Amino acid sequence: MKVVVLTGAGISAESGVPTFRDADGLWEGHRVEDVATPEAYVAQPHVVHRFFDARRAALAVEPNPAHHALARLEEHLGDDLLVVTQNIDDLHERAGSTRVLHMHGELLSARCRACGGRSRWVGDLGDFPPCPACGVGALRPDVVWFGEVPYEMDRIEVALEGADLFVSIGTSGAVYPAAGFVQYALAHGASTLELNLQPSEVSLLFHESRQGLAGELVPAWVEELLAPGRAQ
Ligand code: NAD
Fold it and tell me: Which residues are catalytic?
C-alpha cells in the first residue's frame, strides 16, 4: 500500500510549536503579510529575520507521539510512505522519519540570494552573516513565503498520483496548493483520511474525517494500519 501523509502546523502543536490559524490568523502575534512575504523582506528585512531567528531558536522542543507514530509507520512501509510537510520545523526528522519533503522549506536551512546556495543553518541570520559558499552577506531563511512557489511539487504530484491512501494531519486546509492535494489524490483513485483537531476547510472532501488531538489520533491510526493484513 502506498501512503502519502500531508502534515501541517497542528501535528507540532502538542510539542509546543504554536499553529497560527488558531490564534486569529496571526503567527506568533504577527500578520503573515508583515513577516512571511517577499514584500515584507524588502521593506523590513530586520523584522523578518528577527521573526524567523526566533522561530529557529524555539525549535528546542521535542517530537510528540504523532511524529513518532509516522516514523514507526516508515519502518514498516519504507519507500511506500512519503511524508509531505508544510512545517518548517525539524520534528519529523528528529522522530526518525527520513522520507520527508518540506514543501515550505526548513528553518534549519539558509538560502543565499547572491549565489543560490543552500547551507544548513542553526544560528541567527539577522546580523547578515556571509554565505559559506560565496561570502556575500545575502542569506535569507530557506522557507517558502506567502506568494512564493512551494518546493518539490513535481515529486509530490507523482507521489499523489500513485497513492492508495492520502492522509492529512493537523492542517487547516486554508493554504494552497497543499489544501488541493485531497482533490488531486481523489482524482487519481486514492482513499482519503483527515485527522485534525476540528473540521478543516476541506473536511467534506475526504472519505473519512476524524477529530481530535494528533498525539492521540495518529498513533491509533498507525496501529490500525499496521494490524495484521492491512498495510500490504
Ligand atoms: P494552520 O495553523 O493553518 O492550521 C493548523 C490546523 O491544525 C488547524 O486546523 C487546527 O485545528 C489543527 N490543530 C491544532 N492543534 C492540533 C492538534 N493538537 N492536533 C491536531 N490538529 C491540531 O497550519 P497549516 O495548515 O499547516 O498552515 C500554516 C502555515 O504556517 C504552513 O504553511 C507552515 O509553513 C506555517 N507554520 C509552520 C509551523 C511549524 O513549522 N510547526 C507552525 C506555524 C505555522
Answer: 104
